[in-house]
Amino acid sequence: YSRTACIRMVAGGMTHDILVTQTGIDAVFMLRLSHSEFVFSGRKWDSNANQWTNPDPQELSVNWGPRRWDYEMNLTDYTGEGVVTVDPVPSSSAEPQFEISLEAISETDPKVLENPFFERSSRLGITAWDQERNESITKQVLIRQVFYSLVVKNVRDYYFQGQAYSFNVKSNTNWITTITGDNIFTSDPAMNGSGNTVQGENFTFTIRNNAAVGASATVTFSSPDNLFPPQTYAILVQDVQPNCYMVAPGNNVLIPVS
Q: Nearest Cα to 43, choosing from 113, 118, 97?
């Protein structure tokens, strides 16, 4: 391969052209991908169908060069977990487009039951061949699928007047709270949380001293991006009632204290 350029020299009324030829140029064989990693949600909420469905597909662009050679493109078998589908997408661009799709992760999957923040991954290999030089380049795309969830602990059946409580909330994505029902809190406990699956975050609230017995409120934890179903917990107010015990002389009794 060679290329030629012309250098024109002008001095006064004289013009002189110098022809320069460069030979032995070997274009760089390259393969570029629009993404090196994709992150899919475990599932997608379809508000029209009122059910969880497969996550939205994502697109991958492939570019190789130099284009003066004839290349073959091959999507090698992926390795890992999950069902990955790769389909070509019609495009006006010179770069081939592919659509990558995954099946939803079920909440009844044994791995999800064992780990509510379960994720799985696959690797998709893409190879370009230079038939003229008998060379090839392979690049891989990491495909991760994350099952987003929220776990709340320290939930009680009822709550006493004038007492402070907290829920420990663990999640692998952002979450928000919504408070509805009776006015039983000393201040609005609504808060937003971020993904923390190790220590979690504490949702703290205090029941008013004069909250009516039997009054209740609900706390709903939800995902602003609809990545997991909302979870609702009832806060039922109970007063502290003294307990009376009749004890025979010389006997001991264990009195439960809340």
A: 118
Structure tokens at 180: 């509805």
- Give which of 191, 149, 155, 189 is closest to 170, Cα–Cα: 149
The residue type found at 158 is: Y
Q: Both tokens of residue 219?
A: 């706390």
CA-wise closest residue to 44 among 92, 3, 104: 104
**Spatial separation of the C-alpha atoms in residues 132 and 67, rounded to whole Å:** 12
Q: Kindly report the number of other CB atoms within 10 A of residue 9's CB atom.
A: 9
Of 30-44, 60-74, 83-97, 127-141, the poorest mean pLDDT is in 60-74
| Percent composition of the chain: helix, strand, coil (DSSP 3-state, to 5) | 0, 55, 45
Give the residue carrying structure tokens 């809190």: 185
Separation of alpha carbons 178 and 221, rounded Å? 7
Q: Edge to edge, what strands does the sheet with 84-89 contain? A: 30-33, 58-65, 97-102, 84-89
Q: Write out the two tokens for 137.
A: 């380049």
Distance CA 68, CA 70 (A): 7
**pTM (whole model) above 0.70:** yes
What is the maximal distance between C-alpha atoms in the chain? 132
* Tens digits of residue pLDDT in 80-123: 666 788 888 877 767 788 899 999 999 999 999 999 999 988 88
DSSP H or E stretch at residue 110:
helix 110-114
Strands across the sheet containing 196-206 = 150-153, 164-171, 196-206
